[in-house]
From TrEMBL:
Superkingdom field: Bacteria
Keywords associated with the record: DNA-binding, Transcription, Transcription regulation
PROSITE patterns registered for this protein in UniProt: HTH_ARAC_FAMILY_2
Protein name (Swiss-Prot/TrEMBL): HTH araC/xylS-type domain-containing protein
GO molecular function, one term: sequence-specific DNA binding
Species per Swiss-Prot/TrEMBL record: Oceanospirillum multiglobuliferum
Keyword match Cell division: no
The keyword Transcription belongs to this UniProt entry's keyword annotation: yes
Length: 295
């Protein structure tokens, strides 16, 4: 697991100094990281101009938390509720009861860079809203159903985590950011030549992390446009395609080789045999041993 020093977000370090328990965390790429926390103690917590944006998704509890203002307070936390804390915000929280939540930390520089890649031009006037205890089913489902089940320390899942974090930030740009113009629609998929090159590149590097940034750089496209064009050409998102090809390779090796299950997992880009086993059974509905025995 990554060290806490690998996550430089002030909100992360503010929570680290309390009795909050860190359940999971990962640095996705420069300026973007994520963490899952649990808190049980009653305490006052202040986030004062952290210098980075924070998206918070409540996973469990939160009903007894209040955000404090000079003359009033706001309650309404619950599983699935969302808070968005911009980099320059100042907030005080009265934390009571058990709570479990996921944080996505991202820098203003990364958000501007993402907006620029999507729009193919610079974005100098982005202002994220300050939101407390809102309902956004799209965000809560992405966090709980896509990001939470992944192995955050596994190379095979890093592309999915990175893609999901970008999806979250694009959603924030579209719905909770002022002075941001709509996204342009892509006009087509990958060219036949580039599609063939991309398929070959992926096949040759299935044992490696294969990040979205790497694939987009190979195609000489922005990550956003590459992901959309890739899906239009191949019918699935890049991270889904890579996972399917890794599982296909694992099935082939189980049929055609006597390699150990641990070796097959590494050759297919999974960090461990158990992680491959979990994904393989979910896709093929049989265990690795059952599949090998049946072939």
């Amino acid at each position: 697991m990554l060290s806490e020093q690998s996550l430089s977000a002030p909100v992360f370090h503010c929570l680290s100094r309390t009795q909050a328990r860190l359940e999971n965390h990962t640095a996705l790429y420069e300026g973007v990281s994520a963490a899952i926390w649990q808190r049980e103690e009653s305490a006052l917590t202040r986030y004062q101009h952290p210098g980075h944006h924070t998206l918070s998704c409540y996973l469990d509890g939160g009903q007894d938390i209040r955000r404090l203002y000079p003359s009033r307070s706001i309650s309404g936390g619950a599983p699935g509720r969302i808070c968005l804390m911009p980099e320059d915000h100042d907030s005080n929280w009265d934390v009571n009861g058990k709570i479990r939540f996921m944080h996505l930390y991202f820098s203003e520089q990364h958000l501007r860079h993402l907006a620029g890649r999507i729009q193919d031009k610079g974005s100098d006037h982005l202002v994220l809203q300050d939101l407390t205890f809102i309902d956004d089913l799209w965000i809560s489902r992405l966090c709980q159903q896509m990001m939470m089940p992944l192995n955050w320390q596994d190379n095979a899942d890093q592309m999915m985590l990175s893609s999901a974090s970008d999806m979250l930030m694009v959603h924030l740009l579209k719905h909770y950011c002022s002075d941001y113009k709509g996204l342009p629609e892509s006009t087509g998929g990958l060219s036949p030549y580039l599609k063939r090159q991309m398929i070959d590149y992926i096949e040759q590097h299935l044992d490696q992390p294969l990040t979205l940034q790497e694939l987009a750089a190979f195609a000489q496209l922005s990550e956003y446009h590459f992901a959309r064009m890739f899906k239009q050409s191949l019918g699935v998102a890049p991270h889904q395609y890579v996972t399917l090809r890794r599982l296909n390779l694992a099935a082939y090796l189980l049929r055609q080789s006597n390699s150990s299950l641990a070796d097959i997992a590494l050759r297919c880009g999974f960090s461990s045999q158990s992680h491959l086993s979990q994904r393989f059974k979910a896709h093929y509905h049989v265990t690795l041993a059952e599949y090998r025995k049946g072939h």
